[in-house]
Design a protein that fits this description.
The chain is mainly alpha-helical and about 100 residues long. The chain is about 60% helix and about 5% strand. It has a two-stranded antiparallel ribbon with strand order 1-2. A hairpin with a 7-residue loop joins strand 1 (about 5) and strand 2. The chain starts with a strand and ends with a helix. This is EEF1E1. It comes from Cervus elaphus hippelaphus.
Length: about 100
């Protein structure tokens, strides 16, 4: 589990928590979504990564995830539509190891 020690606050644990914190620290909050709906979609995909990708290593599980993503992205450029977000970054990061193994 990743841990971030901050100079002026508590240590933070978990990839999603740390990534969201760093996005805010860098004043890149648009990566968390621009509208309430987009923010909800970002959160949805971050949760999807934790529940469907992290900890799953069988080829069948990952094939199902990739099939779901392929269908979902059929008419979209990014997970929220046309805006690149933290969800795209972290989902790619989570799936990259499986993609290079194929």
């Amino acid at each position: 589990i990743p841990v971030l020690q901050t100079n002026n606050g508590p240590s933070l644990t978990g990839l999603t928590t740390i990534a969201a914190h760093l996005v805010k620290q860098a004043n890149k909050e648009y990566l968390l979504g621009s509208t309430p709906e987009e923010k909800a979609v970002v959160q949805q995909w971050l949760e999807y990564r934790v529940t469907r990708v992290d900890g799953h290593s069988s080829k069948d599980d990952i094939r199902a995830v990739l099939k779901d993503l392929n269908s979902y992205l059929e008419d979209k450029v990014y997970l929220t539509g046309y805006n690149f977000t933290l969800a795209d970054i972290l989902l790619y990061y989570g799936l990259h190891r499986f993609i290079v193994m194929q």
